[in-house]
Amino acid sequence: MHPKLLLRLAALALAFLCARAPAQHLPLKAYGQAEGLGNLSVTVASQDAAGYVWIGTQNGLFRFNGTGFRRYGPAQGFPDKIVTALVDGRATGMWAGTYENLYRFDGRRFRSVRFDGKPIEVWPGQPVAATADGRVLVVARDRLVEITPRGDGGDVRAYFTPDQIRAYPGLATILSIHADADGALWMGCGTALCSVERGRVTVRDGKDGLPADAWSGILRDGAGTLWVRSATHVFVLPAGAARFQERTPSEIRKRQLLTEMRLDADGRVLTNADDGLLRWQDGRWQLFGRQNGLDVGGGVTAILQDREHGIWLGTLGRGLVQLLGYGNLENWTTSQGLPNDVVISVLRDPRGILHVGTRSGHAWQVPGERRFRTDPAQPAYATQEWGSMALDADGHLWAGTYGGALLRRTQEDGRTALVAQWPQINQVLADGGRVWMATEAGMHVFPATAPLPAGGNEPVTDAVADGCTDGRGHLWFAGMSDVRRFDGRAWETRSYDAALGGAEILSLACARDGNLIATTHDGLWRLRPGGRATRIDAPVLRDRFILNAREDSRGWLWVALDVGFAVWNGRHWRTLDQTQGLAWNDSNGRGTYEDRDGSIWLITSNGLSHVLHPERLFASALRPPVIEEALRGNGPLPVGDAPMPWRADQIVFRLAHLQFDQGRGWHYRFRLLGVDDAWNDTVQPEVRYAALPGGRYRFQVAAVDSATGEQSAPVELAFTIAPPWWRSVRFYVLCALGVAGAFVAFHRLRLRAHRAREGKLTALVRARTHELEQSREEMRLRALKDGLTQCWNRVAMMDIVAREIEQCARSGESFALVLLDLDYFKRVNDTHGHLAGDAVLVETARRLRAAVRPYDAVGRYGGEEFVVVLPGLNLPADASRIDALRAVVRGEPVDIGEGNTLAVTASFGVVAFTPGTPHDPVALLGRADAALYRSKHAGRDRISYAD
C-alpha cells in the first residue's frame, strides 16, 4: 500500500478514536457529605419548578438549595429510605417513589398516594411520567396507574382495562413509561415496546427490528427520533421510519443497575455507560470517563439537566457531580497532550490546525481530533516559552520566546529552526514577507532590510511591550507611554504620557473602531487620537490585576484578570472563573484568542479553556432568590393582610439562590419596608429582626452579582402585626372614656388641660423611645468594633464563631478558624515607638480584610493577635487560602511613617470545624492557639494546623 495512503488511514483511525473518547478535561464540582448529602449512592435526581435540585439516594431524600442539602425524613412525611423515582409534575409539584409508597410534595410535607386503599409501590427504572395536561402516570409494580391530582389528593385509576391486558399480554408487565408532547405514550411492556395513541395500542417487537429485551429507558429527541434503552442495548426509531436501528455503544458491556437517558441543551442524547457518561454527537458515541477527570465510582445512576441547561450526574458511591460549564466550556491540559499546563499563546493556521504555545514549547491539534500533538525530536530552543505566534504569507509559523529566540516552524515538515536571538520577545507580528518583533531592547524586523525610525530617523531601542494589527493592516507598537504606528511607509508616534499619568503601557490591542485598548498598572484604557485616553471602569475590574484585553469580532471586550476573565458585550459584564468551569483563575500570556467560528480560547497558567458559544454567557439573567422559610418564634410567619397578634418573638427569613451556573459570586440585598427603606447587603442566607411593633410590613430581597454589581428583580413577602394591647385603638378608647368621665366629674377646663398634657407626654415618650433605640443600636455597633483597626473585637468574634458553629452543625458544612500573631511585635514598639506599632496593626488588619471574601470575618483578638473565620473552607483541600493569608501579611513592607518601612511576618494557628467537632467556641480557639504556639516554637513566620 502507498505510504501516503497508510498515513491517511492512520490519521483517520486516530481521529475516530479521539471522537469516541473526548479528551478535554471536564471541570467538575462534587457534592457529598461535607455539603449535607448524607448518602453518596444516588438513585434519582430531579429539579422542581422553584429551582431546587432533589436527590434520591439509597438512604434518604435530599433537597439542594445551592449551598447545602436538607434531608426530608419522617418529620416531613417521608419515612422510607431507598428512593426509586423523582419527577416534577409541573403544576402538580414533586412526586417521589419508593419500594413501599408513592408520595406527593405539597410544598411542606410529603403525602402518601394510595390506590384502592393500598400503597403504590414504585420500583427503579423510568416509572413515572407527567403529561402535558397535568396527569401523572406511574408504574406500580408492573401495573400502569393514572393519577389526576385534586387538592391534596387525586383520582387514581388503572390505566389499562382487563380487556386491553387480555388483548395485549405485555401490558400486564410494564417496565417504563414516557409521555410525548402530543399525548402519545411509550412503554417498555414485557420484552417489547408498546405505544398508546388516541386509545390505540401498538406493540413493537422483532418484526419492527427491535429485539426482545427489558426496555427500561425511553426518550424522544428534538428531531423526532425515538430512543429506547435496556441494560445492554440502545435502539432508535427515526421519525417516519418503520424499523428500529441499533445504536448500542461498545462501552456498554456490563448490565447497568439503572439506565438513564436525557437530552442536553443542544439536543444530544446522554446515557450512562460502564465507566462514565456517553453522548451521541456527529453520528457517534463519545465517552466521558476517567480520562476526562470524571470518576463515577460504581457508575452513573442519574442524569439531570437543570433550567440553566447545566448537567448533574448522580453516582453510585461518589455522590452528586455537577459538570461546570457543560456544553459551552472545554478545558485542555497536559492530560490531553499539551507539553505544559502553563499556556501562553494560541493561533489557528489557514489549514485549520490549532497551535498552542506553552511554557515547554509548542503543540498542535488537527480539526476533528480531540488531543494535541507535539513535534518529535525538536532542538532544545524549541521547548522555550512560546510567548507569541504569527503566520507569514507562506503559511510558516513564527514564534517569539521569552528567552529571546525567534523561531520559524515550516508547515511542510513541522521542523522548528532558530532564526535569530534577541532579548525577551514580547510580541511577534507578520506583515507580508516581514516579521516584526517587540522586544525588551526595542523593535526589530526580519529580514532586517532597513532601520526602524520612530517618527524620525532614530531606531527604537526602548522596551516595546506589545503590538497589534488594525483593520487597515497598520502595525501598532506600545513602548512605555508612547504608541507607534507603521502604515507600510512611515511611522507616527502618539504620546499618552499625560493622559495616563506617566503609567507604562503593559499591553495593547486594536479595536474595531480604529482606537486602541491598553492596560497599565492603574487599569484599562481606550486610547484615542490626539493623546486622549478614557478609562474603562466597572466594578468587576476594580482592585484586580488586568493582564490584557482584546476586542472580538462582535465588538465584545474580553479582559484577562488575576481572578479569571471579564466580558463586556456593550450592555452587561459577565465573569468566568473556576466556579463556572474555567480551567484556572490566573490568566496568562496573550489572555484570549478568537477562533474563526467566533468561539474564544481563554489562556491560563494551568490549562487552556475554550468558550464554544460566547453568547450563552449572557443568555440567562440573574434570577431572583427564594424565601425558603419565614419564621416567627418556633412557627411559620403568617403572611397577608390579616393581622397577627403582637409577640416579642424574633422574625427570621431564610433565603436561597437557586441559580447554579453563577458560581458563588453573589450575595443578598434586602430591606423591610415599614422599618427601613434603605437596602442592606449580606452574604448570609438568613435575615433576623427583633420584636417588631405593630404595623404592615413588606420584606423584599434580591440577588446581587458581587463581581458585576448586577441585581435581580426582588421578591417580596408581606405581613401585618397587630399593635400590643396597650397601643391598641380599644385601649385608647377606654382611656378617652375615662378622661371624659373625669372631665364631667371634676371640671371641663381641667380635663382639657389634662388631655393636652397627655398628648404632649405621649409624643415626647415616642420621640424619646425612638432616640433611645437609635442610641442603643449605635452603642451596640461601637461595642463590637476594635477602635484602632476597625475590625471586629474579641466579643464580636466569639459571637461570630459561636454562630458559625451553630450554622455548620445544622447544615453539615465546615469552616476554618485562623489565629495569627505578629512576630516580634514588642520589638516594633520598643524600637520604633507605639505609633509605628499602631501603623503595623492597622495595615495588617487592612490586608487581611482585603484578602478574604465578603462573608468571611476578621477580628482583633487582643494585642497583636488577629482571628479570621472562613466559612465553607475544607481542610486540607483549601489550605492554599491560608497560605494566601500568610503571603498577604508578609507581602510588602509596612509604611511606619517618615519614609520608613518595616517587614512584617506572622505565625499562624489553624483549626478546622466539621460537624463532628465539639460545639465549644472556647475549645476551638484553644486548639488554634495551641497550633499558633507550635508555629512560634518552630521559628515563627509559618502555619501550623491543629490535630
Give an overview of the whole structure.
The protein has 947 residues and is α+β, with helices and mostly antiparallel strands. Among the domains are: 626-719, Immunoglobulin-like, CATH 2.60.40.10; 729-784, no CATH class; 794-945, Reverse transcriptase/Diguanylate cyclase domain (Alpha-Beta Plaits, 2-Layer Sandwich), CATH 3.30.70.270. Helix content is 16%, strand content 38%. The strands form 18 sheets. It has a 5-stranded antiparallel beta sheet with strand order 6-7-8-9-10, with no helix packed on it. Strands 65-66-64-69-70 form a 5-stranded mixed beta sheet, sandwiched between helices. A hairpin with a 2-residue loop joins strand 67 and strand 68. Helix 3 packs antiparallel against helix 4. It is globular and about 110 Å long. The model is unreliable at 1-21 and 453-459 (pLDDT under 50).
